[in-house]
Amino acid sequence: MSQNQVLYMAKEAVGAVFLVGGPILGVSLLVGLLVSIFQAMTQIQEQTLSFIPKVVAVVAILLLLGPWMLSVLTAYTTNLLTQLATFGGL
């Protein structure tokens, strides 16, 4: 395996991670920010108030985007296994 092949596989892995993890992290960040603003405005300092909405939002985004995420991961895995067979000379 050459250096270019390894770099290509690493680039594809990072791209798949960003595609799959980005929406989950973005929604979690947005919900956490909104809850923090709400807590600052009302001066409520309850720890579970920030945790429960994040969990609900992450579950909702997984239900909504789960099939797309699965297709991205399936395409990446298929490409990876095809490339490994090509690089290995099989």
Task: Please provide a written account of the structure.
The protein has 90 residues and is mainly alpha-helical. It has one domain. The chain is built from two helices and no strands. The chain has helices at residues 3-42, 47-88. α1 (3-42) packs antiparallel against α2. The chain is elongated. The mean pLDDT is 89.
The major β-sheet equals: none
Low-confidence stretches: none
Strand content: under 5%
SS element count, helices: 2
- The total beta strand count reads 0
Number of domains: 1
Structural class: mainly alpha
Supply Rg: 19 Å
Q: What is the quaternary state of this protein?
A: single chain
Query: Would you list the SSEs in sequence order as H and E?
Result: HH
- Which percent range fits the helix content? over 70%
> Mean pLDDT across all residues, rounded?
89
- Based on CA inertia axes, which overall geometry fits? elongated
What's the end-to-end separation, in Å?
Answer: 13 Å
